[in-house]
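Input (structure):
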């Protein structure tokens, strides 16, 4: 059954247009993406079923191609669409950060880093390099590790920051476990990075630990 055959008062498209996208449930958003249901379920029922199968909308969107395509109502074409949607979201948030001072939009910065790192299977250490107006010069992955840790070398971070002519940096890394609480090793390496960068007069503004769904800020915790 297509969206056109669902009663008008319950059509997700109509609800989105009349009440805004934020008014839609996860299943309603997914129904708009799916467009059609199956022989046994209308599109809203199928959307609700799929979210139940994956456990959450987030898990569905970040599933591997194999896991995604084995569910009815989904396939490679839909998988490609999901990848495109996620990449557009990353680029939108990245461009928004680059247009302004990251310190004026800490929530935006958190959202960007969460989208970027939340579902990485390995621990990934990411750096935002900023100019003296706290605008983003570039953002890069500097280190990747195993499921448990990443080897982070302060000398390499300093070298890259100098190459970028950065006045300040923001660090972020993910915890594949999903638990965003900073570990003692996270705190130790952050102190080492702050000390190393201070020698070349580059400020460390924050270090975000990205979990699922939480993101913890060292600056908000008073750890920097």
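Output (sequence):
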């Amino acid at each position: 059954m297509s969206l056109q055959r669902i009663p008008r008062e319950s059509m997700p498209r109509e609800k989105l247009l009349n009440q805004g996208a934020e008014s839609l449930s996860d299943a309603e958003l997914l129904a708009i993406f799916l467009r059609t249901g199956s022989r046994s379920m209308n599109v809203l029922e199928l959307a609700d079923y799929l979210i139940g199968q994956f456990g959450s909308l987030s898990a569905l969107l970040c599933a591997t191609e194999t896991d995604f395509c084995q569910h009815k109502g989904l396939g490679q074409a839909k998988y490609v669409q999901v990848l495109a949607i996620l990449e557009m979201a990353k680029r939108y948030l990245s461009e928004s950060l680059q247009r302004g001072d990251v310190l004026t939009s800490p929530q935006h910065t958190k959202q960007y880093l969460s989208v970027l790192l939340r579902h990485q299977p390995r621990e990934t250490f990411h750096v935002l390099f900023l100019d003296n107006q706290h605008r983003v010069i570039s953002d890069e992955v500097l280190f990747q590790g195993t499921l448990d840790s990443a080897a982070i070398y302060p000398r390499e971070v300093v070298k890259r920051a100098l190459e970028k002519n950065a006045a300040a940096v923001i660090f972020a890394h993910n915890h594949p476990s999903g638990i965003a609480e900073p570990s003692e090793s996270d705190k130790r390496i952050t102190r080492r990075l702050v000390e190393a960068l201070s020698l070349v007069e580059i400020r460390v503004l924050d270090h975000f630990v990205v979990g699922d769904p939480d993101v913890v800020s060292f600056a908000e915790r008073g750890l920097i």
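Notes: Residues 38 and 73 are 7 Å apart (CA to CA). Residues 102-217 form a domain with the Cytidine Deaminase; domain 2 fold (CATH 3.40.140.10).
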